[in-house]
Amino acid sequence: MRFAVGMVLIDAPHSALNMLGIDETLPDRTVTRVKKLRKGGWSYPYVSPQAWRYWWRKTLSEHFNWNLSPMVREEKQVFTAANPVEYPDDDVFGYMRAFKKGNVNITVTRMSPLKNTPLVSLLPDRSSVTQDEGYASRHEGDPVPYSQEFYSTVLRGAFSLDLDAVGKYNMLDKAGFKNLLRVDEIPKNLKDVKSDYEGIMSKAKELGAEIDEKELVMPKEIRKKRASETIKALRYIFGGAKQTQYLTDVTPKFVILAMFEGGINPFISDIVYEDRGEIRFDPDALISRILEFKDILEPKKVYIGKDEGFMRHWKEELIKVKERLSEEKIDIEVTTVGDAIEKFAKEVEAYYESL
């Protein structure tokens, strides 16, 4: 099992990217709060993992022309088409859908190959959050006061992409793992579902997929394209709330990228941390993490990308990482963010070529 993993830092100098909403505890109900996570007695602003995934999906649609899965509303639930053959976002981001008619209830579930954390502030709210006071005054009568929080911080997030799962769909009758139905097992009273699945299987065969009773595997060129574009989208990612008032570039300003033979992401915590209001990089922690999992680092390469204008004083620490790990026969490439992402995407493509 090969996983492409990474850690990103997003510079958010004046932002309100994911809001909690109106503070209902206040009598005037005019204060809009940012989302906050409590940890160790402090609160930290964060962007929900769902919001980050929404930006990611939208970027893949806008920049890489992904045909996104249509949304289907049934009673009080909303589903995607649950068709990973034709819709790459169903493949990469996963889905769950139930097909119901009378006493028949069949569910398909796809665990997302792409997993991600929230984007969490490195600075606590005491030193990062500001409350902006304003007035609505474009109407007749007295101005109406309102307040909203925004923050100045650096957001940290991490992700893991299961390369073996992209483009591979299970058809075994196993709860929570059944990605697709077999046409011959669909009950007669689900005629529409059977018709849809006949179309899905026909399209899969047309594309050259390998199909047996247990699984459907897409051609490696399609798998390679979907996985590499998922990585490349990080370079161009855009989105976030309150952009009209607090325009923020949400592309990463610092990335660490590598591939491991297992679902471990050793870059999630404490390599970058806050110390008395300053954001610091711990080269020894990164060196230790990589050496700890050296045996499953494959290939023996780590890509580090940093925007030239971001954390200029980290240069010496990055040189230390490169020199120390080079002694252990691990190739560390320190470059720009865009270059690191593009080169890492090529490593992802090379993995599929080796299959």
From TrEMBL:
User: What top-level branch of life does the organism fall under?
Assistant: Archaea
For the keyword Membrane, the answer is no
The record's annotation in InterPro entries points to: Cas7/Cst2/DevR_sub_I-B/Tneap, CRISPR-assoc_Cas7/Cst2/DevR
Q: Where are the transmembrane segments?
A: none
Q: Which UniProt keywords apply?
A: Antiviral defense
Short name of one Pfam family for this protein? DevR
* Gene Ontology biological-process annotations: defense response to virus
Summarizing the function annotation, the protein's role is: CRISPR (clustered regularly interspaced short palindromic repeat) is an adaptive immune system that provides protection against mobile genetic elements (viruses, transposable elements and conjugative plasmids). CRISPR clusters contain spacers, sequences complementary to antecedent mobile elements, and target invading nucleic acids. CRISPR clusters are transcribed and processed into CRISPR RNA (crRNA).
Question: What's the protein called, per UniProt?
Answer: CRISPR-associated autoregulator, DevR family
Q: Which organism is it from?
A: Archaeoglobus fulgidus
